[in-house]
Request: fold
Amino acid sequence: GNVRIQVVRNSKVSYFSGMLPVAKRRSLRSITRLMRSSRAIMFSSAKSGASTEPNSFGTNEFVDWCKAANIEPMLAVNLGTRGGDAALKTLASPIPIAADESCIDRASLAALVSRYQAVNIKLDKTGGLTEALVLRDVARSQGYGVMVGCMVGSSLGIAPAVLVAQGADHVDLDGPLLLAEDREHPLRYEGSTLHPPDVELWG
Reply:
């Protein structure tokens, strides 16, 4: 069926709420009410706020789960439209931080030194497959971890990123799963496994 996405902007709510003691965290319903009161909702589900999420699995619990599963977590940080990165120079984060909007192409890498430990590569930002592959290789050579992500898009738009994702530390190519309808011969997902595209997808 259709996927409805609630998009909000509110300075009073951040991922830090998942780092408070569980008993002090706002439930998702109360957060939704707060956002409604500030008229921050840009697009919302008709049943938004109809159920309560206790917010008991937050940032700390996620990090603990990663340790138990022997998986290295990574934070992909978006500090607005490429600004505010200087604040990260003084942040001693125990988790590698990946540059999202601050990394567009290989020319962006120089500004990431001492601020980020990884880059989040998206075809939409690099302008295409060629620059994405170059960015991946140059970032690797400079010691950055590599994450390959995406925007919402069809399987045809995401399929080239499967090539970029070869050897990546983290992969988040779930764009087609957020669509109500995809192209014929779509990418195939099984749990956390993304299979290579079928030749028919290319047309």
Remarks:
- Residues 1-13, 31-50 have pLDDT under 50 and may be disordered.
